[in-house]
Amino acid sequence: MTLNIGPQHPVTHGTLRIVAKLDGEQVIAAEPLAGYMHRGYEKLTEVRTYPQVTTLVNRIDWLGSFANEVPFILAAEQLMEVEAPERAQWIRTILFEMSRLGHMIMFLGDMGVQVGGLTAIFYAFRDREFVLNQIEAVTGGRFHPNFDRIGGLLDDLPKGWIAETKQAMEKVRSFCDEMDDLLLGNEIFQERTRGIGVIPPDVALQYGLSGANARASGIDWDIRRDNNVGLVYDKLDWKVWTHPDGDSFARYWVRLQETREATRMIDQLCDGIPSGPIMAKVPRIIKVPAGEAYVATENPLGEMGYHIVSKGDLMPFRVKIRSASFNNVSIAPWLLRGVYVPDIVSIMASLYFILGDIDK
Hints:
Layout: E1 2-5, E2 8-9, E3 14-15, E4 17-23, E5 26-33, H1 41-44, H2 50-57, H3 66-80, H4 86-114, H5 119-139, E6 148-149, E7 152-153, H6 161-184, H7 187-193, H8 201-206, H9 211-215, H10 223-226, H11 248-272, E8 291-299, E9 302-310, E10 318-322, H12 324-330, H13 332-336, H14 341-351, H15 355-358
Antiparallel strand pairs: 1-4, 2-3, 4-5, 6-7, 8-9, 9-10
Helix pairs in contact: 2-3, 4-5, 4-6, 4-11, 4-14, 5-6, 6-11, 11-14
C-alpha cells in the first residue's frame, strides 16, 4: 500500500509530501518530495543590492527571523574588511539568541501536538509572545526585523528594554519547566519518542546533520563555541548540550536544554553590554570589493551559511545558501525505513525543519 502524507499536513511544517510504501503497519520505503514552494532566493539575491538582500533572506526560515540576516551580513563585512562596533556585536548576539527562543518555543509546544498532547502548543503560543514583543520593541518587526546592517545595526536599544527582557527570560524558563512536566515527564510522550527514530552519530555526519539534531546523537559540535565569527559567545559562560541516545526523545531534550541555556546567555549579555556606537563608518552606497567569503552561524535549525562571490559591484555576483532543513529532511528515507506508521509523525516532528528553508 502507498500512503501519501501531505503536501498539506501538520507534521510536514509546510508544503512537503511524504510518499510511504507500507507492508501492513510497517514502512518499507519513504520518500520526501519537496519543491512545492520554490522561491529562488539564491538567484533573487543576484539582482538586489547588499542592503536589500537583508530584507529578502529574512524570510528563508520564517521562524528564524533575525538569525537569517546575521551570517549574510558577517560575510559581506568580511569582504569589506569592516567590523561592527562592540556594542552592536553584543546586541546582535542578544537578538540572535532571541530568534532561537522564538523558534524553539514553537518546537517544544508543537512536538506535543504531534504525539497527541494539545495543551503544550497553547502554552507555546502564549509564552512566545514575550520574546516577540521584545524583538518588536527593538526592531519594529516581529517576524521579519530587517534590523542588521553592514557595519552594525539600524538603531540602539530603547529605554527600559534590558529590564523587560530579563523579565521575559524568567517567563521562558517557567515555560521550559512546564514542558518538562507536561511532556518529558509524561509516560505517553516517552513511549512515543524513546528508542524511536534513532540516528547513530556516523549516520548523522554522513547526512550533514548539524545543530540540535547532531548534538542529540552525541556529536559535541556547536558553531557558537567551535567556529564563532562576529558574535560574542566567547565572552559568555555557557554549555553545549548533547545526548547519547540519538532518538526523538533526545532531540526534544537537547532543544529544551538549549532553550534554557539561551535565556541564561541573554541574561549575561544584558548585564555585560558595553556602551558605545552601534554603527561603524561605512560608505552610504555599499559596494563590496571583489572576492569570496563563506560565513556560517549556529542558527535555530542548525548550520546556516552564505557563500558570497563579489565582483566589486553593488550586488552579489553569486550567493550560495547553506540551510539546515534540507539536511534535516534528507535523512528521512533512511530513518523511516522499518518504522510503524504512527512513528512517522513523531520522527518527522523531532527532526524539525521549515519548508521555506528547504525550498529556498
